[in-house]
Amino acid sequence: MLDALSPTITLNDGHTMPQLGLGVYKTTDAEATHAVSFALQHGYRLVDTAAMYLNERGVGDGVRASGLARDEVFVTTKVWFTDNGYESTLRSFDESLDRLGFDYVDLYMIHWPAPRNDKYVDTWRALERLRDEGRARSIGVANFHAKHLERLLGETDVLPAVNQVELHPWLPQTELTVFDRSHGILTQDWSPLARGHVLDSGPLAALAAKHGTSPAQVVLRWHVQRGNAVIPKSVTPERIEQNIDVFDFELDADDLAVIASLESGERTGVDPDDRN
Ligand SMILES: NC(=O)C1=CN([C@@H]2O[C@H](COP(=O)(O)OP(=O)(O)OC[C@H]3O[C@@H](n4cnc5c(N)ncnc54)[C@H](OP(=O)(O)O)[C@@H]3O)[C@@H](O)[C@H]2O)C=CC1
Ligand SMILES: O=C[C@H](O)[C@@H](O)[C@@H](O)[C@H](O)C(=O)O
């Protein structure tokens, strides 16, 4: 069992969260169990799932199989947008906890604001209640544009701890990251490798050669060096190990300029305003 390899970040509610963790989107229960247990034994301490991934059972089993105690692992899950709304969120949360086999999660997030349904403020009130009850230690949002956050901040009492958004060299989300930070909200980057597609960019191969790393490590180093949290997904043992091995080298200003030149605005997922 390796000690924790990722530094932690203190959230605006005082809890600490590992900066880098494992994503498990598009993995079956069985794949999730293997990947989670392997990752936890190799230095990871955070796993990111969602009701929509249909693998919370596998994630819970992976945590139990790892040999770590529940309180050594930071588990995050999310309410899917079709369950946005007060009562439906409380129900969905109970179902997630049941599938995970835990009596709390470390971070519970609104998966998408789904602005046309106009239920994300009610959803947030349900999360505030879960936080008061201690069943969700921290609460956050995902896929929120600044305008969605502004509305939440204006109408509710508890600040989201995290805004988990699509972010990678093609889509660095600099303005949103600055907005989040100005409110003490930590940006957590999803699809940090643009689902693997950004890794073929020629300039990354040169940076990887310069640092004696892989292109994925260069990209993940860029994420952590910007001060964001990040959740790369892999079910491949060597990649799982490689992806957290990014805390002992530094990208310099020239490297950062090369990565900045990859910005194209291209998303791999939908724009949050279009998901309803
Ligand atoms: N809140 C939201 O709406 C969303 C949240 N997420 C979260 O973010 C996580 C990460 O995003 P995701 O979309 O999965 O995509 P990532 O950007 O993490 O890319 C994952 C892909 O890259 C491959 N890969 C991983 N590591 C390496 C490596 N070192 N070298 C080469 N290829 C590699 C993986 O292959 P393999 O597994 O075969 O090794 C997989 O195909 C998700 O799993 C989920 O937890 C994702 C999407 C939306
Ligand atoms: O967490 C997973 C996501 O929200 C998933 O729904 C999206 O990444 C989707 O595939 C998209 O294309 O936008």
From TrEMBL:
Q: Where is the NADP-dependent oxidoreductase domain?
A: 25-262
**PROSITE patterns membership:** ALDOKETO_REDUCTASE_1, ALDOKETO_REDUCTASE_3
Which top-rank group of organisms is this from?
Bacteria
Pfam families according to UniProt = Aldo_ket_red (PF00248)
What UniProt keywords apply to this chain's record, in alphabetical order?
A: NADP, Oxidoreductase
By sequence similarity, the record places it as follows: Belongs to the aldo/keto reductase family.
Instruction: Quote the protein name from its UniProt record.
Output: Aldo/keto reductase
